[in-house]
Specification:
about 45% helix; about 25% strand; 11 helices
Length: about 300
């Protein structure tokens, strides 16, 4: 069994097709088929159900896939570390983050990192925290920002987590319209009377907001649901309704105004995570430092964001 065989197996599993996998790997299809056949003989088990126009993993294939992904990720990390130790200035960082952080903390951190390390290749995976935990577990990303709310914690895996920020959820409205609250704060009862834009079910923000309304035994006045973060903010800017969002998304958005929740407030914790059994490469460690520095600076700019460092 070798890395080329494992890489071919993972690519066929990902694409579900030998021809597309061979094109992706720049291999002739017969060569890829021989690699997979050799791997199956060495393991003593078939890895794919083969049917005309359809490829599916067998039980053995499903067992092998996450292990193969981890082995390939570890091999890539070794190559990068050896290259760095040999004096190369290049490297690669695969960063994962939720959409709400990609338009705020991540944008600032990546800008600072790229200015210092312009030759390092950056790969960003934008996804929800639950999926990012799975991506970390199989080695698909090197490091990830994950959010954990009091209403919906992220299931734990073998990760090293560094809490960075405690961030309040706030209610945002259009700055072109009158304020939605006479005071500096708003409660859940007042919020339920306003036209509310809510996120897709995949957002932990949606889970947290729904739980708050259930706890207060209140039905919100939802005027639009299922939108993504950028669309929600655009709709709010144009006065379609209000939305509950993390305080950080208000950075550099003068078209929006925010109101903090009266106690009890809704908060979430932002943590930086990587696999506990993998030593971060030098480029990944540098990215970690850039994110921590950016998070500390962001906390100084907004009273609704608290540094946990």
């Amino acid at each position: 069994m070798n890395l080329e065989q494992l890489r071919g197996f993972v690519e066929v599993a990902r694409l579900g097709h030998f021809t597309r996998a061979s094109e992706s790997l720049h291999l002739a299809q017969p060569s890829l088929s021989r690699q997979i056949s050799t791997l199956e003989r060495e393991l003593g088990a078939e890895l794919f159900h083969r049917a005309r126009g359809h490829i599916a993993l067998t039980a053995a294939g499903e067992t092998l896939l996450p292990r193969a992904q981890r082995m390939l990720a570890e091999a890539d990390a070794i190559r990068e570390e050896m290259g760095e130790l040999a004096g190369l200035r290049r490297g690669r960082v695969r960063l994962g983050a939720p959409p709400t952080l990609c338009i705020s903390l991540v944008a600032e951190a990546l800008s600072a990192f790229h200015s210092s390390y312009p030759d390092v290749d950056l790969h960003l995976t934008e996804s929800g925290s639950r999926l990012l935990v799975e991506q970390l577990a199989v080695g698909a990303v090197d490091i990830a920002l994950i959010t954990e709310s009091t209403a919906q914690p992220v299931p734990g895996v073998s990760l090293t987590r560094t809490p960075l920020l405690a961030e309040e959820l706030v209610v945002v409205s259009s700055a072109a319209h009158p304020p939605i609250a006479e005071d500096a704060v708003i409660d859940i009862h007042r919020l339920s009377t306003l036209p509310l834009i809510v996120f897709d079910d995949s957002y932990s923000l949606r889970t947290t907001t729904d739980a708050a309304f259930r706890a207060a035994d209140i039905t919100p006045n939802v005027v639009l649901e299922g939108a993504e973060m950028d669309a929600v903010l655009r709709f709010v800017e144009r006065g379609v309704g209000v939305a509950v969002v993390p305080a950080m998304v208000l950075l550099d958005r003068p078209e929006l105004r925010s109101v903090r929740f009266a106690h009890p407030s809704m908060t979430r914790t932002i943590s930086l995570a990587h696999r506990s059994d993998v030593t971060p490469a030098l480029a990944v460690a540098a990215m970690r430092h850039a994110i921590i520095s950016t998070a500390t600076e962001v906390a100084r700019r907004d009273p609704a964001i608290t540094s946990l460092l």
